[in-house]
Backbone:
């Protein structure tokens, strides 16, 4: 993913997750580990979604800040651009798109 996105990848230790300002985190690993990690993350109140990015990992999840989802982001962009919600068309293919599609 680092090569394809040309982004800097940083590994964080989650001993103090509140110490970092993170807008989104993607975790890769075995299905068993990712299912366990997802339950832990959701127990802390963070939304977690199956992530659709193709990788060599058996499973991956996307974690976003509490209270944030694509529906909220889409509404904010529409507000900034002065576009009515009924003029917005949205397509999605993953769990993280459900709120925006609704």
Residues:
């Amino acid at each position: 993913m680092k090569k394809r996105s040309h982004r800097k990848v940083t590994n964080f230790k989650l001993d103090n997750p509140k110490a970092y300002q993170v807008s989104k985190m993607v975790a890769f690993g075995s299905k068993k580990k990712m299912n366990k990690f997802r339950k832990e993350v959701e127990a802390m109140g963070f939304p977690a979604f199956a992530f659709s990015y193709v990788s060599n990992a058996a499973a991956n999840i996307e974690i976003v800040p509490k209270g944030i989802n694509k529906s909220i982001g889409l509404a904010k962009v529409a507000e900034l651009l002065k576009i009515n919600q009924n003029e917005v068309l949205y397509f999605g293919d993953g769990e993280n798109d459900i709120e925006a599609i609704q």
